[in-house]
Amino acid sequence: MDLIKLNNLSKTYQIGQNKVEALKNVDLTIQNGEFVAIMGPSGSGKSTLMNLLGCLDKPSTGEYILDKNIVSKLDNNELAEIRNKKIGFVFQNFNLLARTTAIENVEIPLIYSGINYKERESKAKNKLDLVGLRDRFNHKPNQLSGGQQQRVAIARALVNEPVVVLADEPTGALDTKTGEEVMTIFHELNNSGITIIIVTHEIDIAFHAKRVITFRDGVIIEDNNKI
Ligand SMILES: Nc1ncnc2c1ncn2[C@@H]1O[C@H](COP(=O)(O)OP(=O)(O)O)[C@@H](O)[C@H]1O
Ligand SMILES: [Mg+2]
């Protein structure tokens, strides 16, 4: 099934008199269950693409269809709703709330979904267990290693059962060994059927994906599917 479809999608930023064409007429289809790495030099449009895919921003022109929803036609409220329901985000710097336990961090998306306390706690524990943090439920970010913090962030990304997990440089702040451990988790998640799209500039990290798409100057210059 086509999970993501971009038709002739462009994004132009305007700052004063200056226009930056960050994405130019991009066509892209991603199926349910894929594991995609997005590569390309700095400034090639990778984060812009992730922001659009994640419904954080809207394209200037073109169409974005996510799980049969024409996202490019939605207003900001509808966009926020689809984002909370269908997208899990993982960031380079984890973006966890300080002074807040692992469980509470993972519960946050469920608060927005209006889920009651008991159910929130059980779902959060379940996802923390899944990423191997069973013995760290009540630890706060500063009591966890970088790799453990990123695993909390992955648990948080999963807690609403999203259709896709988007990760922008998820190993960028981690050493090589810890980065590999985080990639192993993405592997396992993908094996269980979750669609994963990660941005990386490290070829070793991209190697984990089944498909590698390379951008330059806002266009796709290479799209290699290993299967
Ligand atoms: N919010 C913004 N406002 C203006 N220009 C932006 C903005 N975000 C990105 N850009 C520009 O768009 C281009 C693509 O940026 P980006 O998507 O962040 O690339 P990458 O993630 O591949 O490094 C760059 O030229 C960048 O300067
Ligand atoms: Mg970027």
Instruction: State Rg.
Output: 17 Å
Structural class: alpha/beta
Report the helical percentage.
25-40%
Number of domains: 1
Spell out the helices and strands N to C: EEEHEEHEHHHEHEHEE
How many strands appear in the DSSP assignment? 10
CATH topology: Rossmann fold
How many angstroms does the end-to-end distance come to? Answer: 16 Å
Main beta sheet, described? 6 strands, mixed
Ions, cofactors and other bound molecules: adenosine-5'-diphosphate, magnesium ion
Strand content: 25-35%
Total of helices: 7
Shape descriptor reads globular
- What's the architecture, going by CATH? 3-Layer(aba) Sandwich
In CATH, what is the homologous superfamily?
A: P-loop containing nucleotide triphosphate hydrolases
Characterization of the model:
The structure is a single chain. The chain has 227 residues and is of the alpha/beta class. It has a single domain, classed as 3-Layer(aba) Sandwich (Rossmann fold). 34% of the residues lie in helices and 30% in strands. It has helices at residues 46-53, 76-86, 102-112, 117-130, 146-158, 176-191, 203-206; strands at residues 2-15, 18-31, 35-39, 61-66, 69-70, 87-90, 164-168, 195-199, 211-216, 219-225. The strands form 2 sheets. The chain has a 6-stranded mixed β-sheet, with helices on both faces. A 4-stranded antiparallel β-sheet has the order 2-1-4-5, with helices on one face. A hairpin with a 2-residue loop joins strand 4 (61-66) and strand 5 (69-70). It starts with a strand and ends with a strand. 41% of the residues are buried. The model has no long low-confidence stretch (mean pLDDT 96). Residues 46-47 line the site of magnesium ion.
